[in-house]
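Figure S7 source data.
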Amino acid sequence: MKDSPSVPGKSLTPLGLVKHLDNKLLIGGKLVNAKNGKSFPVHNPATMDVIGYAAQAEAIDIDQAVEIAKKAQKEWRHVDAINRGRLVAQCGDLLEEHKDELARLMTLETGKALRTESQVESKLFANTFRFYGGLALELKGETIPFSDSMLALTIREPLGVVGAIIAWNVPLLLMSLKVAPALVAGNTVVVKSAEEAPFAVLRAAEIMNTILPPGVLNILSGDGPATGEPLVCHPDVAKVTFTGSVETGKKVYKNSSDKLTPVTLELGGKSPMIVCEDVDLDVVVEGAMTSMRFTRQGQSCTASSRIFVHQAIFDPFLERLKAKLDALKIGDPMDLETDVGAVISPAQHQKILTYIDMGKSAPGATAHACSSLPTDPKLSKGLFVQPVLFTGLPNSHQVCQEEIFGPVTALISWKDFDEAIEQANQSEYGLAATLWTNDLKRALKGVHRLEAGFIQVNQNIVVQPGLSYGGMKSSGIGKEASLEAMLEHFTHKKTIVFNMG
Ligand code: NAD
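Tokens for the predicted nicotinamide-adenine-dinucleotide complex:
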């Protein structure tokens, strides 16, 4: 094992770091070029400037990364669990030392506001490694009272090489939710980063590789067909863990089924927020701001993009929420005064605007556009969107049924609690839900009836290590962020019987 880590490029600016990582993959502990020499541009969504080029990994690179990871796993699985945990926790400590650098790099490539989003995520990122590092001795089996003359037990073993594919909206957090439990459980990992956000993930892995043995954590960049698909289909990948859209998740599921590879799928959402008439309006409006992840331009799988508000408080709720949104500053994501940055890509920008137009043309609907777009000429090509609150749209409308992944939410009025729950459940998704009431009886009824994997009453915090997170219906299969996630998704159980008779 390595001793005191020395991380290269410590004093580099975000653009300097991109140059350092330009056109590189991380395989076997080293930054290397893709074998075929292909690369693709990565943009700053706030200006649309090209910030650098990411290496396009293809089958030949995937073969190499998986082979090296497979070799490394043969040793890594035999490192005592407590030492694996110690190394992973040490990665958390070192990542925390680099949290500002990682946050700035992430803001550069994603357009997310530094203060409200990237700084928060990079802390959570480091903590996830510490959390899982401390769980190493929980990789326990059971003894079974089978017979007095036999000792029957189960042990937990690692699966092998894990292929991890992630989305761009919270790239570091998503990486940690897959890499940390996989490593602690004794697997090695090949991550495929998202095309839009390859650099922060690559840098984080470079930092971690000053602690981890070579080959234990490898990073590939590239698109879905050339990089993601061959990784999923690789015969030596023993487990696939995926975060992304339902459409891609289904392809990943099909491809994995050909060789019966176990899969975890964390997919999209259209999460409801139900607001009862007995709440403190100021508290619940603040809750809606977080619930809808407005500071992330609504680019969150759990965003409360349907808010069901009791008719008695509908108008004051709308008024106060709009006032809060109007006070947000949309602008340069690197500026610490900025609350809301840009959306990720021209395609996503166009998709959001199309949904806003669709909503506007619905009979009886009103679009309440909030805050204002930046006027700084440096940001004139940036992908900024004003948050929009829709009123007058039925829950059946496309804006209320399809995942927009932008700062657009529909406010729907209700008067009967059971009907509100029923409407909330009328969705193909089942990722998360929030319920706001001070009536315990109603809260209990609601949490039992809501169809979602993660339900919060009177709050909406983001994913936290320790709280199992994952959806039902089209929102996915399996859990992340908890001990259960590590045991169920990154180990298999072996049953052993000793005949002592
Ligand atoms: P996406 O499905 O387009 O891409 C996700 C990843 O899959 C990318 O790395 C992409 O390159 C890769 N990919 C594409 N085609 C592939 C293929 N055929 N085989 C293997 N990999 C392939 O999703 P996106 O637009 O990047 O991300 C947004 C989506 O992610 C939203 O639907 C959002 O709800 C979801 N998401 C879910 C969670 C969660 O925890 N449930 C968290 C964040 C984002």
